[in-house]
Specification:
- This protein is of the alpha+beta class.
- The chain folds into two domains: about 160 residues, Aminotransferase class 4, branched-chain amino acid transferase, N-terminal domain (D-amino Acid Aminotransferase, Chain A, domain 1), CATH 3.30.470; about 170 residues, D-amino Acid Aminotransferase, subunit A, domain 2 (D-amino Acid Aminotransferase, Chain A, domain 2, Alpha-Beta Barrel), CATH 3.20.10.
- The chain is about 25% helix and about 30% strand.
- The protein is built from seven helices and 18 strands.
- The strands form two sheets. Strands 1, 2, 3, 4, 5, 6, 7, 8 and 18 form a nine-stranded mixed sheet that branches.
- Helix 2 packs across helix 3.
- The longest helix is centred in the middle third of the chain and has 16 residues.
- It is globular, with a radius of gyration of 21 Å.
- The protein binds 2-OXO-4-methylpentanoic acid.
- 2-OXO-4-methylpentanoic acid binds next to loops.
């Protein structure tokens, strides 16, 4: 793929690396590529980051044909920059686009676009501990029309922002509320995709949880509201009696890159990982019986997030005395060690940008 480059007149001022938070400061450039029916993907370019002109009748604003991804570029101690399993994000976006009837962006072009954009933005990749450059690819319909149909025009864009921890609490345990009324996904729906609509539908649950003093929502399966599935911005894993439990990838749960990496590490260390349906009532009982040893969320933005408290209806359990568990800490140290190039990458997950 040939990528044109349009230089910016004036570069932006970079934020203080010690106060980045998440997703606040966009870099100088973005990657853009257009798709039109009969023409396919064309005009790949890296241009100054800025507003995207859009008709008020742009189909995305009405019918939400939109998908996105999230990955990171990491600054190693030797100054080099590396990516973590970008092909998995590219492939997942293809699956999301296929479900939403949107054209699939080729995997090799996705990885090339990410690599070239990060190369242009290398001065934006922070070096403070636990900071990285978050990369947000997204795709949406651009056709101006109010009929509900597969659009004839789309854009694929990549923006980037330097980030610190996703949660203000850092690696301190979060409190999670199990949502027993609203649902996030049902089989045959879009639960396995990263589409904006999934997140729009989750915000009411998040607001409810926050009103009760909780940080995030744990969603149950949409059909029976019995089995634990996923947290708002992460997959979730439970350590019960020394074994790990997490929801299976059967169409309702996001196939997380961090989830897959954690499962690989856990199995490599000899843990039994059960990708199975776990009833929330069994989970709470394990908590009360002292068998629920650790709970943690996994995701690109959050990395790994220990859970210190779970609430289901009026039942509340504290996990590991509301402290970060030993295994959670080991997973965090190992994964971030590989991502920042401090530990050997025996699975070949990272790739240097040169
Ligand atoms: C990610 O972990 O990259 C995500 O996309 C989660 C999110 C911030 C919605």
């Amino acid at each position: 793929m040939e990528i044109k480059f349009e230089k910016r007149e004036q570069l932006k001022e970079k934020p203080d690396q010690k106060n980045l938070a998440f997703g606040k400061y966009m870099t100088d450039y973005m990657f853009v590529c257009d798709w039109h029916e009969g023409q396919g993907w064309h005009d790949a370019r890296i241009v100054p980051e800025g507003p995207i002109p859009m008709e008020p009748s742009c189909m995305t604003l009405h019918y939400a044909q939109e998908t996105f991804e999230g990955l990171k570029a990491y600054r190693r101690d030797d100054g080099k920059i590396q990516l973590f399993r970008p092909e998995m994000n590219a492939k997942r976006m293809q699956n999301s686009n296929a479900r939403l009837c949107m054209p699939e962006f080729p995997v090799e072009d996705f990885v090339q676009a990410v690599r070239e954009l990060v190369k242009v933005e290398q001065d934006w990749v922070p070096s403070e501990p636990n900071t990285s450059l978050y990369i947000r690819p997204f795709c949406f319909a651009t056709e101006a029309s109010l009929g509900v149909h597969q659009a004839v025009a789309y854009k694929f864009i990549i923006i980037c922002c330097p980030v610190g921890a996703y949660y203000a609490t850092g690696l301190n345990p979060v409190k999670i509320m199990v949502e027993d009324e609203l649902v996030r996904a049902v089989r045959g729906g879009t639960g396995f995709t990263k589409c904006g609509g999934n997140y729009a539908a989750s915000i009411l649950g998040q607001v409810k949880a926050e009103k009760l003093g909780y940080d995030q929502v744990l969603w149950l399966d949409g059909e029976t509201r019995t089995y634990v599935e996923e947290v708002g911005s992460m997959n979730i894993m439970f350590k019960i009696d020394g074994e790990i439990y997490t929801a299976p990838i059967e169409g309702t749960v996001l196939p997380g890159v961090t989830r897959d990496s954690m499962i690989t590490l856990l199995r490599d260390w000899g843990y039994k990982v059960n990708e199975t349906h776990l009833a929330v009532t069994d989970l709470m009982k394990a908590g009360h019986d002292g068998r629920l040893e650790e709970v943690f969320g996994t995701g690109t933005a959050a990395v790994i997030s220990p859970v210190g408290e779970l609430r289901y209806k009026d039942d509340v359990v504290a996990i590991n005395d509301e402290k970060t568990g030993e295994l959670t800490q080991k997973l965090y140290d190992t994964l971030t060690g590989i991502q920042w190039g401090k530990l050997e990458d025996k699975f070949g997950w990272t790739q240097v940008i040169d």
